[in-house]
Amino acid sequence: MKASSYFLGLSFMIVSALGAERGSGMGQLHFGWATISITPDQPVAIAGQYHTRISGVAHDPVQATALAIETKNELGSVDQAVLVSCDLVGIRKSIQTQVREQVAKQITELDPEKIFLTATHSHTSPALTDSRETNLHPHDFMGSWAYRIPPDQERVMLPRAYGSLLVARLSRIVIEAWNQREPGGMSTALGHALVARNRRAVYADGTARMYGGTEAAGFSHLEGGSDHAVDLVCFWRGGTLRGLMINVSCPSQEVEGETYLSADFWYDTRRRLRERFSADLNILSLCGAAGDQSPHLMWNRNAEGRLRDRAGRSPRQEIAHRLLRAVEEAMPRAEEEIHRQLPFEHRVQRVPLPVWKVSDERYAEARNRFESGKNRTDELASHEYIEWRVSRTLMNRFEHQKEDPHYHAELHFLRLGDLAIATNPFELYTDYGIRIKARSPARQTMIIQLAAACGGYLPTERAVAGGGYSARIVDGVVGPQGGDVLVEQSARVLSDLWQGSH
C-alpha cells in the first residue's frame, strides 16, 4: 500500500489537537526562562554506546533549559508552551509523564500537555534505563539500552535514582520558567554553519555503513545530504537580548566515546555565545532532523585538522566557532523586526504511525538469540547483553503488532508569528525534515527531533535498502512507510495553522 493511500485511510484515526478551541489569533508575547544542572554528584552509567561506560568526573556540566511561552489578549491566555532542552541522549516517555504530573500539582493554569522535553542527543550523558526494570512497553525503544553496573562499582548512582533526580530538576525549571513569564518581544533569523555531515557511506555493491571508510576503493558516495541551516529565535525584553532558541540539524556527539559526562559541543557554543552577547544569556539548544548525521569528518580529515590546529581549536571548539559566527551574521536581521504582538497556536497530536512490522523469520532469529542468552546474562559481553535485550524487545514488538499495528507518536506543532515548529520522537533522517520544511507555508520552519519520547531511528527507504546500523528493524520502531505518514501529517497540520494567512 502506498503511503498516500495509507495516510488517507488513516486520517480518521488522527487525534485532534488537545483542547477543543483553536488559538484566538494575535496576543502579547510573554516568556520566561530557567536553567538547571542535571549533572549527578555520583558516577553513573553513560548512555549512547553498546558497551558499559562508568563516568569519572564531569568534563563539563550537562544541563537542562526551559522556555515558557504564552500569548495573552483582552480575553486572557491565547495559547501556551513550555519547551525543555536536555543534554541527554534521548527522552523517555515515562520521564516526560512524571514531569507533567509534578508540574500539574503546583500550576493549574498551565496545560501539562503543552510541556514537552527534547534531547540534544549527547552520547556523554547519564543513562536513563535501569537493567532491573520490568514490564517495559514494546515501543519503549530506550528500554533496550540498559547497562549492567559492575559489582565493584558501589558508588555508582543507578539509572532509576538518576531518573528521580532528573524528574525533580526538570519539574523545577518548568515551574520556574512559567513563573518568570513577563511581556517581551521575539524575532527570527536564519544563519548557516557546516556542522553536520551525512555519516552513512555507500559502496559499489549498494551496501551502506555508518562511519564506513571513504578511503576504500569500493566507496561510492555518502547516502544523503545535510541541512546546514542554523534556525534562530531571539527573545527580547526592554531592547535587551534575553534568550536564544538555536536549532541545528546535528546531534551533539563529537566526543561520543569518552568516559566522562559532557554536553559536547553545546557547552562550548553556549560559553562562546555568552562571552559575545551576555553572561546571563539563556540558550535553548535544539536538534533538528539528524538521524543520519554526525559532526564527525567522513573525508578531508587532514585539511580540516590542519585548519583547526592553526586556529588552536579542538573539534568541538571549531563547531562552537562556526555556530557563533552564524549567529553573529544573522543577528542584525533579527534586530530589525521584533514582534511583541503575534499569532501563536500550539497543537498537540497523537498520531498513529504504522509500525515497522517484525516478520516471522526475524522473530525466530530474535527468539534464538534470546533463548541462548537468558540463563547466562552475566556471562555476556557488554555488546552481547545489549543485543540480547534488543532481541527481547523485538519479540515483544512481534506480539504487540498483532493487537495494535501502530506507534502512537506525540507530535507538537507550533505557529509562533511567522515561525513554524514541528516535533517528532525519532532520530529522524534528514530527508524527512527537509521534506517537511519544503512543504511548510511558514516563512521559517524548525524541526525538533527526539521530542516527547524516543522511537529510535526513522530511516529512509534507500537507507533500508543499503542496510547497516540505524537502518535495521532493530534500530527503530517505525520504518519508511511511517516516515511518509509523518511527513504528510506534519505538512497538513502546518498548512492548517497558516490557513487564511497572507
Please give the structural blueprint:
Blueprint: H1 3-10, E1 26-37, E2 63-73, E3 76-86, H2 93-106, E4 115-119, H3 159-179, E5 182-183, E6 185-192, E7 197-198, E8 200-203, E9 208-210, E10 219-222, E11 229-237, E12 240-248, H4 265-276, E13 282-287, E14 293-294, H5 301-311, H6 315-336, E15 341-354, H7 360-373, H8 382-403, E16 406-416, E17 419-423, E18 427-428, H9 430-439, E19 444-448, E20 457-458, H10 461-466, H11 480-497
Helix pairs in contact: 1-11, 2-3, 4-6, 7-8, 9-11
Q: What is this structure, in a nutshell?
A:
The chain has helices at residues 3-10, 93-106, 159-179, 265-276, 301-311, 315-336, 360-373, 382-403, 430-439, 461-466, 480-497; strands at residues 26-37, 63-73, 76-86, 115-119, 182-183, 185-192, 197-198, 200-203, 208-210, 219-222, 229-237, 240-248, 282-287, 293-294, 341-354, 406-416, 419-423, 427-428, 444-448, 457-458.
